[in-house]
Design a protein that fits this description.
By secondary structure, the chain is an alpha+beta fold. The chain has two domains: 36 residues, no CATH class; 135 residues, Nucleoside Triphosphate Pyrophosphohydrolase (Alpha-Beta Complex), CATH 3.90.79.10. It is 22% helix and 45% strand. Strands 7-4-9-8 form a four-stranded mixed sheet, with helices on both faces. A hairpin with a 4-residue loop joins strand 5 and strand 6. The longest helix has 13 residues.
Length: 181
Amino acid sequence: MHWKTLSKQRLHSDKWQDITLNTFSTPNGITGTYVAVNKYHDSAAIIARNNHHEVALISVYRYVIDEEVWQVPLEAIEQNEDPMQAAKRGAKEELGVWPQTIEKIGEFYPDPGMLKQKATVYELTDLEPLHDEVTHEVLEQEMIVSIQWFSLEKIEEMITNRQVKDGWTLSALHLYKNHGR
């Protein structure tokens, strides 16, 4: 029961994504068009937990919705890079910590109807602070407004009060909360 691609027209391409307008036909003979966003990089979603059992969230400005949103750190997995290494690199670059322990929690597809991208969720613990690793340049480049550590109870409250509304983060936190705990 696969759809057949009849044609593809590239609408936009940059270092992060390729957007195409696809003409398709279904096994039932229906034809139509579909916009697909092909991300060049899968992502590592980072659940960094400190010795106080708090989880790091970053406040990031998102242009499309013109809002600051709380989210877990996300790191693009570079070509030929191990996803676990990408998670460690993200913790170093975005949080200024290096994990001594890392565990894969799960995977999800954030929007399989539109995006060809997978997120792998990792829990990072036994964190060693790295001095001066998070620079203002990194914060500005990533549009990070602030980095804060919250208890899981506080994060649940933030979700209930609609302070955490990023789908990637909600999915990653759900996997984390329900992973063998």
